[in-house]
Amino acid sequence: MLFGLRKLLGVATFALIVVLLGPKLFVLFDNPKNATIPAKLFEAREYILSKSVPVLHRYVPTNIAGSDRSDWILIGLAIVVTIFSGAVAQRSQTAQNRRLLRKSAQAWRRKEGVKPGSRLDAELETTLRMAESGKAVNRQELLRVFAETKKKLDTFGREVAFLAIDVVGSAGMKAGEDPASIQYDFEEYRKLVERIFRARGVLKTAWTPDGVMACFAHVEDACQSGKDVIKSLKVFNSEVKLSKADFAVRCGVNAGLVYFDDSTPLETISDRVIDVAGHMQKNAEPNTVLVARKIIEPLRQLEEFTHTSQVIDGYEASVWRDKAA
User: Where are the transmembrane segments (predicted)?
Assistant: First the structure.
C-alpha cells in the first residue's frame, strides 16, 4: 500500500512539475493561450497557485531575490514528500520482510528439529541477525539463510541407535521394603548398566528414576548392551541386590538419522526415532529386547532375533530372548 502511495505521489509530482513549469516554456511563443494545450496548462497553473499560495505564505517565505518563487517551492515540497514517502515505504517493507524472515525461521526450526539452545540454533540465530541487519531483507536473502543453515544442519545429522530400558514393576518392588535397601539396589543397578554402556561406547544417556534412554553409534552396540544388561541381572539378583524382588527389564531399540551435536543433552532431543525406541520398550516382554526389524536385518546376529506379529508405530518388531534363561 505504501509503495502504491509512493507511486501515486511520484506521478502527482511529475504532473505538478509539468503544470507549473510548462507554461514558462510557452511564454516564448506568440499568443500561447490561443492554443488548447498551453491554455489548459495556464489555467491549471493559475488554479493551483491560487489555492496553494495563500496557505504557503502562512508558513514559509516565497519571495527570493525579489521574485515570487511559490511554484518552485511547491515543486520542491512535492519532491521532498515523495522521497520521504518512498523511504517510509522501504523501511516498512524491510521491517515486514524481517518479521517474515523470523517467522519462517521459527517454522523451519520446528520442521528440521533444531533444538532451542543447541549450537546449531545459536549459529542460525547469528545468521538471522546478520541478515536482519542488512538494508535489503527479501525472499532471496531468506533462502540464502536457510541454505547456509541447512548445510550446517546436515553436518549434525547422524545415524545412531537408541536403547530404552525400564525396570519392570519398579513401584511394586519398593512396596514393603526397607528404603535404604531399595536405594542401594537401584544405585547398584544403575552402576551395572552404566558399566555395560561404557564398554559398548555409549554416546549419551538420559535417566529417569527407574529407566534410561541411551544413544549409541551402532545398532549392534545398542542391541548388545540390552542383551548384556539382561544377562548380567542373573548374578545381580543372586549376589548383589538386598531386596526380595528380582530385577527384570524391558528393552526397546530403534535407529535412524537424528540431528544433534555433542553439547545437546539427550533429554532435550525430541525425535520420532527416539519415540519408537521408547514404544518398543513399552511393548517388550520382561527380560527381552524388542527391536524394529528393519534396522537389524543387515546385522550378522540376525538369527538371534525372532520375528513377531507385533507392529509398533508402523514397524514390524523382532525380539531377542536369553536362551540360557
Answer: 72-89
pLDDT of res. 325: 61
Q: Which domain holds residue 243?
A: 158-321
- Report pLDDT for 212: 97
Q: Residue 121: which H helix or E strand, with range?
A: helix 119-133
CATH number of the domain within which 284 lies = 3.30.70.1230
CB burial of residue 123 (10 Å; 0-12, 13-18, 19+): middle
Q: What is the rounded distance in angstroms from the CA atom of residue 87 to the CA atom of residue 158?
A: 47
Q: Quick: pLDDT tens for 211-222.
A: 999 999 999 999
| Strands 249-259 and 288-292, bridge-based pairing | parallel
DSSP string, 19-56: HHHHHHHHTTSSSGGGSHHHHHHHHHHHHHHHHHHHHH
202 and 313 housed in the same domain: yes
Q: Name which of 251, 151, 280, 141 is nearest 193 in CA terms.
A: 251
Are 63 and 174 contained in the same domain?
no
Say if residues 128 and 101 touch (Cβ distance below 8 Å): yes
111, 143, 176 - which closes a domain: 111
pLDDT tens sequence across 248-296: 999 999 999 887 667 777 887 778 899 999 999 999 999 999 999 999 8
Give the chain's residues under pLDDT 50. none
Q: Residue 128 falls within a domain, yes or no?
A: no
**Phi, psi torsion values for 246, nearest 5 degrees:** -80, 150
In this prediction the pTM is 0.58
Q: What is the Cα–Cα distance from 275 to 256, expressed in whole angstroms? A: 11
Residue type, 234: K
Kindly report the backbone phi and psi dihedral angles of residue 21, in degrees, each rounded to the nearest multiple of 5, phi listed first: -100, -25
Does 135 reside within a domain? no
Q: Domain count of the chain?
A: 2
